[in-house]
Amino acid sequence: MLDYDREAASYDATRGGEARAGAAAEAIERLLPPGARVVVDVACGTGIVTTRLRRAGRLVAGVDRAAGMAAVAASRLPGGVVRGDAARLPFAGGSADALTMIWLLHLLDHDTSAAVLAGAARVLRPGGTLITTVDKTDAVYRAGDERLSRARDAHVPQASDALDRVLDVGAGCGLAMAGRTTFAGVGQGRSPRAWGDLLGGTGLGWTRHADPAVVAGLREHLAGLPGQDVPGPDPVYTLLALVKA
Ligand SMILES: C[S@@+](CC[C@H](N)C(=O)[O-])C[C@H]1O[C@@H](n2cnc3c(N)ncnc32)[C@H](O)[C@@H]1O
User: Quick check: helix, strand or coil at residue 88?
Assistant: First the structure.
């Protein structure tokens, strides 16, 4: 996982900024139960999405493990952010009407993501809603090059935030699917050159297990595409709503 303490200063500018945050918050709003009064944004990061969830009569809190991210979030929501681990949420059982998790589960291993889903079920009141992104990294690759996407599929096991897995693990915690929607990762489409640079670096875990000849072939393929510096389409992310029985 990235060092989010170090990411904090550049996070908003490099993750689609206000436009992406606005799209995410609007999508969350479509899935929130009417009248939700206590909403906790888990892994709130810099709070750029969290702050947009505030409404009259609704208490919104953020929690994040990284001090650097939580500090930026606290500047947006004074008094409304705590440092904490999503697998051990610092909130009483049954205390929230809704929990949101934007871009968290895909970062975690299977055991931790299962603990996070169980912890979410504990903090939600009966009838409360968990709203989470699923298939996050898939969305990024699907928006990129098809050949690259297929190569990655062949080298990665099931993601922690795979839709089927979240539904299975959620069912085991008493969370049932209640809806889904999407939002655009505004400004996050990558150009062929940017994908090629990523493949050439160390940031993509799956390339370490791939045949170097396959990776070299992909880089060659990307370098031969037209519009080397033209960003591809924005990824479209899926948000899932799960309701606690
Ligand atoms: C990709 S960022 C997403 C931030 C925010 N939800 C957004 O949409 O802008 C992932 C965040 O998850 C936080 N995080 C990672 N593991 C965590 C954990 N176990 N508990 C709480 N936060 C965690 C990181 O510190 C980081 O702020």
Answer: helix
Q: Which segments of 29-78 are extended strands (E)? A: 38-42, 59-64
Q: Is residue 203's pLDDT more than 90?
A: no
Q: Is residue 87 lining ligand 1, measured as CB closer than 6 Å? A: yes
Q: How far is the CA of 99 from the centre of ligand 1 (A)?
A: 14
pLDDT tens for each residue of 97-149:
999 999 999 999 999 999 999 999 999 999 999 999 999 999 999 999 999 99
CB 43 less than 6 A from any atom of ligand 1: yes
209 CA to centre of ligand 1 in angstroms: 26
Distance CA 121, CA 138 (A): 25
For 4-144+158-190+233-244, the fitting CATH number among 3.20.20.140, 3.80.10.10, 2.60.40.2470, 3.40.50.150 is 3.40.50.150
The model's pLDDT over 33-55, given as tens digits with 9 standing for 90+, comes to 989 999 999 999 999 999 999 99
> Does the beta carbon of 83 sit less than 6 angstroms from any atom of ligand 1?
no
The span from the CA of 134 to the CA of 206, in Å, is: 19
